[in-house]
């Protein structure tokens, strides 16, 4: 048995559709992103087990002994795994939700687990389950403000959540828990014959429950003010039933194939999310294998469609939907983190282990090439997505792929946010993943094989043309920074950069030109001996401004000057 590691935590999440086993490392500097070092899932549906063939049709009965035995075997196996990793006994938590809470033999079931493992089962109340689910959503992004729902197998939780500077607010009422889980709705539709009339009646029943609950949530005016300022009201979703719906939306995206196979951070507009007909068409096509959706989950999607129709009918103010990976495990652990860690930027926490020695100085140099005022003619500015926190994360990763062979660096960087070093960081939006990957790919000159070129094109399509073009420009500046400071260490300055807008005439038309001035330190040998490579860099960055290198008709002419 390994020695205990005090910051390892083991969580068993006993859901209605399955049981998840995980071990998480809460050591710094990555505690904010709740990195999982072990994960397993057992497809035992405690909800379905209560409607097994031993009971009368449609009658809920106790969890059968054979199911309890299977659960116990998996628990004992995980207990051995915890010992292998060195998880302290006091850091192991068994959390049970709807199916265990409502099982006729819940007491017996929990006593059986205690007898097999010595572990106490924490039975979450409806309100606590909703609160922890909201905390899981809060852990899934750098900031959160909107309505929140968690769709399990047996129930749906409904509340609101705001996270800012490590402080999480949810409804003072806790969470409304409705008996409309994916498995529960599927069974109810089957019992009622699956007719259109039954669907309509169920849909109206669900919609009315949500309409009644909405004014009782006590949503603060600050949330509505944020929505008005942004011009959008977000609905944050977690839970397996909603995740399955999100994966189908990815499958039918106009970006085919969709390049980011991670549900957390995926966003959809209301109309796309509510297009239940298209989603059901994909699911009923027997020839289509949907990534991320099991057979059981696919069989529940028609019932989820009824729920989504009802939600959209009851809550017309929702404009955007954000899918989150966070759930009970993440919420329970996030709740245990100190406020100062919860307040950390998850993107910074995920990239900090790769930061170069002089990350702050290099980030300042990189940022100095982004204009702070709009261009005089077309009003061009860098997109808001190129925020200080994103540029800091990019700086942290400037040298992360330097040890690989030259011919693999661009490709490794291109894939780093999906299957590479940031693939397991679950707190990034899809736009952040695409921007970081494209910038870092360009930082290593963007030399790609045909297969990787196709993937690069798909990533670009997830962004606006403006974002995709600025990725290329920032990546080329990152190349300059990396060449001038190959060790990532700034002991004395070698170059300084500034940008300014100019008006030029091209083909008898006035247009904007972004002038990048690079000033060399005449007293530094590292700078004075780089004149030739600096001139080559100006030619490269100027090429990005040529029309043939624009992205979907968007681009800006660029000029480089070495002085």
From TrEMBL:
The record ties this protein, via InterPro entries, to: ATPase_NBD, GppA/Ppx_hydrolase, Ppx_GppA_N, RTG2_C
Q: Which Pfam families match?
A: Ppx-GppA (PF02541), RTG2_C (PF23566)
Gene Ontology biological process terms in this record: regulation of transcription by RNA polymerase II
Q: Using the record's annotation, list all stretches that form the RTG2 C-terminal domain.
A: 345-558
Domain Ppx/GppA phosphatase N-terminal positions: 32-340
Q: What is this protein called?
A: Uncharacterized protein
The scientific name of the source species is: Aspergillus terreus (strain NIH 2624 / FGSC A1156)
